[in-house]
Structure of Endonuclease/exonuclease/phosphatase family protein:
Amino acid sequence: MKIRVATFNVSLYGKTAGEVYERLIDGRDPKAIKLAAIVQTVRPDVLLVNEIDYEPNAATARLLAEEYFSIAKSGRSPIEYPYIYAAASNTGIDSGLDLNGNQTSGEATDAWGYGVYPGQYSMAIFSRFPIDQKNIRTFQNYLWSELPAAKRPRDPETQKPYYEDRVWSKLRLSSKNHLDVPIQIGDATIHLLASHPTPPVFDGAEDHNGCRNHDEIRFWLDYIDNPDAAYLRDDAGNSGGLTRDAAFVVLGDLNADPADGDGKQDAIRRLLGHSRVQDPKPRSPGAAEPNAKNKANAKHTGDPSLDTADFGSSGHFRVDYVLPSESLNVVDAGVFWPQRQDPQRELISASDHRMVWVEVEVP
């Protein structure tokens, strides 16, 4: 059986809790209509959405599915997702600590993951196939210091830790969450290993966001490599990584380009080159088009056709990934980034990220 798996950072967030839900409620939100048109064009069987508000009842995610994906938009056929999983997120949850060191607590930068309200920038999975809810593993509470050889941020001149010991011992690794979500496809199971690491910018010389981004990605290397690792404890208290015979797909907006940008690139390069991971290198014709107005792209060394996000004056980057395990046969792959003369081009204005998809054969 062939299935199409996709990731899409849709940038559906607001300034206050509940704002996005109110925008979507009548099915007429212009941004969501464009997002739905992209989904209905690519038609993934399994879709990870980054940057959508979280509520315990998945209200916003269900509204997006019912009022947008499942209703024809811009002349396209609707697509139904009967199975939805909305993930809790560290974003906007006050840590009670002064994480940014300005002698004040309770700010967005003092949350376990940056956010002005709880659930901002979260994740949801939409699937045409059953989600094995009982066996979902989450690592929302996993401590950064528990990861062996964690990159603890330090002042580059004094080598003094950016986070004092009492803060470091409590810090969570995941800026949102790390998810292992099993999808049941006939007799086969595919584990979706989903995350959305913090951007490796918006910090200082200590590079605390760069360190965190690196280790949020490195977490998956440990999870894939170490099925018996006692230090990999999920939120239910169960230990260990993924079994060696498990089929999986690592996916999400990982906020890391292997060639360009300010991130610590070792982790993403190791993930892309891992022996159990395939990099289908999804491409698009639109990303590679020359843009005389954007001089930053001329300084980049990565293949522009692989780029998945347009960050304005900073240029284009490859930061969104769908990486199947070696046990899945890759049939096709792509990035929804139409060329300028394509009538579908206007749809991509809905987000600074592009949908990335991979089609695989499930044994």
